[in-house]
Amino acid sequence: TRDRPDALRTPIVAVLGHVDHGKTSLLDKIRGSAVSEGEAGAITQHIGATAVPLDTISSIAGSLVDPDDFDLPGLLFIDTPGHHSFSTLRSRGGALADIAVLVVDVNDGFQPQTEEAIDILKRTGTPFVVAANKIDTTPGWNPQEGEPIQVSYEAQSDRASSRLDENLYEIIGQLSDSGFSADLYWRVQDFQGNVGVVPVSAVTGEGVPDLLTVLMGLSQRYMKDQMAIDVEGPGAGTVLEVKEEKGFGTTLDVVMYDGTIREGDEIVVGGMGDPIVTEVRALLQPKPLAEIRTEKRFDRVDSVAAAAGVKIAAPDLDDAMAGAPVRVVRDRDRELVVADVESELAEIEVETEEEGVVVKADTLGSLEAMANALVEAEVPILRAEVGDVAPRDVAVASTAAEAEHQVILGFNVDVLSNAADELEESDVRLFHDDVIYQLVEDYETFVEERQR
Ligand code: GTP
Ligand code: MG
User: ipTM beyond 0.95?
Assistant: First the structure.
């Protein structure tokens, strides 16, 4: 018997990769809009989510996808800006995304944020495919607008196609150096043990039918069981961003991965201090194929079922944290839900010691990733928190006994102006970067130089 499509949720697909490798452009192509053109310098400022219904996928994929073969409702894409760590996208015990697309510029190959993404995919065990993007920039390329990759290959000169092949094998080699057996996707039989590489162009749309086909196939084949949820049950999600919104105050951009959230629901949200208990005042959702971070006029909706990106307006959200859980209480005992959120936050709590460095990060997930990297580098942590660098952090850092620990490591955070003054007057050194291992490396270099 065939499952009812409405009992299966939409798989969540994270799109990640190095800055400028074409994540947003690829989604634009799929959406048929051009979000990136409205962006300052084509840099994505925020995380957004885009739902692409099965009908749209099958119309793009043409003969490659027959909607009758699928009972998943579509795909929910989450765009992650290059400067932002994919690690925000967490959920209890792992990754929020069911599956990921790692976008790699076919000319540039692996870059620092590609490596970082690979590490996190490995750690969380998230299945992924590689979109080898910008194939249209291959010298002598003869573009075949929107065509599947095989059609496109046939139209190329030997020179252009072997040039592309060289680049593709370079990427396959880099994947294998990172511990993943990989091949061009049409040669992959078992997508669980091997990473498929899909050549694409976000500009000409070549290979995009293939990419969508592979993603649908992967989800349908390996993840259908995971997608069977109680859509009517109390909702669960992860905060992507805490944001001021005109007329609504502080709001949360959330990806719901389970159940339903309704207007008026009591919710529990992970915060800087105790979990926040509040009531949903409004649920704002972008229209299908629209983009949560650029769509100004949201639809106000009564309820939202997983999986979906939604903006939640509610009182008392100022202390909510990106990366933290959101839970609907509904007919459960509120205290149990609060305890549940607390225990989930405790899972992420970083081991701190009497002596060490101060760590600040923009989200819970990135704090966790930073802490992991520091443990690996055998750097002790005195305090680790989400948020911008504040005067208190400078005060705490200056209490470290050893000079090499009188340090603040900031990942993707700002320095509050009064903290900047205090920094200048103290011996505390600040390191910041938006690539975790760069930050750790800079700090290690500093320690080595001191020891000389
Ligand atoms: P961040 O969000 O800043 O990390 O970048 P991104 O990965 O989203 O890259 P984006 O889509 O903004 O693309 C970066 C630049 O590459 C833009 O100028 C795009 O027009 C260009 N670009 C993206 N994909 C392609 C492609 O397939 N072919 C060509 N020729 N250019 C592309
Ligand atoms: Mg982008």
Answer: yes
Q: Is the N-terminal amide bond of 42 cis, ω within 30° of 0?
A: no
Question: What residues contact residue 106 under an 8 Å CB cut-off, 6+ apart?
Answer: 132, 133, 134, 135, 137, 138, 164, 167, 168, 171, 199
Question: 446 and 403 in contact (C-beta within 8 Å)?
Answer: no
DSSP notation for 217-243? HHHHHHSHHHHB--TTSBPEEEEEEEE
Query: Which letter does DSSP use for residue 186 in this model?
Result: G
In the reported structure, the alpha carbon of residue 164 is separated from the centroid of ligand 1 by a whole-number distance in angstroms of 18
143: number of Cβ within 10 Å: 16
Q: Which residues of 85-119 are buried (b: 16+ CB within 10 A; e: fewer)?
A: bbbbbbbeeebbbbbbbbbbbbeebbbebbebbbb
Cα of 280 vs centre of ligand 1, distance in Å, is 37
Tokens 């915060």 appear where?
A: 271
Distance CA(72)–CA(81), nearest Å, equals 27
The whole-model pTM stands at 0.81
* pLDDT tens string 381-419: 999 988 899 999 999 999 999 999 999 999 989 999 999
Q: Where are the alpha helices (DSSP H) in 377-435?
A: 391-397, 417-425
Backbone angles phi, psi at 79, to 5 degrees: -85, 130
Query: Which of 110, 121, 99, 100 minimizes the C-alpha distance to 173?
Result: 110
Is pLDDT of 100 > 80? yes
β-bridge partners, 387: none
Separation of 27 CA from ligand 2 center, angstroms? Answer: 9
Atom of ligand 1 nearest to the CA of 27: 11
The total of other beta-carbon atoms located within 10 Å of residue 173's CB is 13
Query: What residues contact 65, with CB distance under 8 A and at least 6 apart?
Result: 57, 58, 209, 212, 213, 216
